Amino acid sequence: MKFLLIALTLLLPVLAHASEGEAALPAQNWSFNGLRAGWNKAELYRGYTVATQVCMSCHSFKYITHRDLMRAGFTEAEVKAMAKSMNMDLNAPLLTGLAPADAQETYGKVPPDLSMMNKAREGGADYVHAVLTGFSEDPALIKEHFPDGLPAGAYFNKAFPGHAIAMPPPLQEGAVTYADGTPATVEQMAHDVATFLQWTAEPERFERQRMGVFVLIYLAIFTLLAYLSKRAIWKDVKGH
After folding, report:
1. Do 41 and 188 meet the contact criterion of CB atoms below 8 Å apart?
2. Which of 26, 62, 133, 143 counts the highest number of beta carbons within 10 A?
3. Residue 147: its pLDDT value, please?
C-alpha cells in the first residue's frame, strides 16, 4: 500500500498552488556511479527486500524476474531461494497480487509498474531518494512556501515540485527487517530501494559498458593498423 503512494508522488501532477519549479536534488553517493561503479549486491538485496515487502503490495516489476538478478551477481541457488520465499517461479515477472479491478475500485486507477521508474523521472535515483526523504512538518518551512497553509489533503515535501503532494510519508522507521542486520531507517530504505529501482531500470548497464570498452579497444587497434597500412602503401608508391 505504501508504495502506491510513492508512485503517485512520482507520477501525478503537483497538488499545490505554489509554482516554484523543480527543487534542487542533492546528489547521493551511488555505488553504480563513478570509476569503480558496479551493482552492490548487499544494497540490491536490501532494496529488493523493500520492493517486495512494500512495493509489491500494489505494484509490479513486469520487466524483471528473479533469474535476472543473476546478472547482478546473485547465484542461481540464491535467486531460487528468493523466488521460493515468495512462492514464485524463477522465470516469472515480479507481479503484484493486487488484481487490476480491485486496484481500480480502491484507488481509481491501476498502480503503475515500477520497473522503469528511475528512467521515467529526471534525476533518476537522486529524485526518488529526495522525494522519499523530503517530507517535513516544520511549521516555519511550510509557512514560508504556503502562507495560507497547505492545500487540503496535501503533505509538504522539500524535493517535490511545488512542495505539496497528495501522499503521507511512505517509509517509516523499521518498516522492514534487513537480513544483514542493517537498521531499516528511512534514509537507508530510500537509498536501497532507489538503488534497486536503478537496477530494474537498466539491469544491462555494466554489461553494456564492458562491451563499450571492448569496442573502443577494437576501434583503436583497427585505426592503428589502418594507419600503419597506409604508411606502408604510400611508402611503396612514393618509392616508384
Report:
1. no
2. 133
3. 94
Q: In 86-123, which residue ranges form alpha helices assigned H by DSSP?
A: 100-107, 117-120
Question: Could you tell me the sign of the dihedral formed by the alpha carbons of 213, 202, 174, 53, in that order?
Answer: negative
d(CA 102, CA 211): 44
> Which tens digits make up the pLDDT trace of 138-179?
999 999 999 999 998 789 999 988 999 876 788 999 999 999
25 CB-side CA count, 13 A: 18
192 grid coordinates? 536501497
Residue for cell digits 508522488? 9
- Reference 171, options 153, 154, 191; nearest CA is 191
- Has residue 15 got a pLDDT over 70? no
pTM for this predicted structure: 0.75
Map out the domains of the chain as residue ranges.
2-203, 204-240
Residue 7, pLDDT > 60, answer no
For the chain, where are the E strands, in sequence order?
61-65, 93-94, 155-156, 164-165
Examine the pLDDT at 59 and tell me if it is beyond 90: no
Measured between alpha carbons, how far is 77 from 5 in angstroms, rounded to an integer? 34
For domain 2-203, is the CATH number 1.10.760.10? yes
Do residues 59 and 200 lie in contact, with contact meaning Cβ atoms separated by under 8 Å? no
State the Cα–Cα distance between residues 199 and 193, nearest whole angstrom.
10
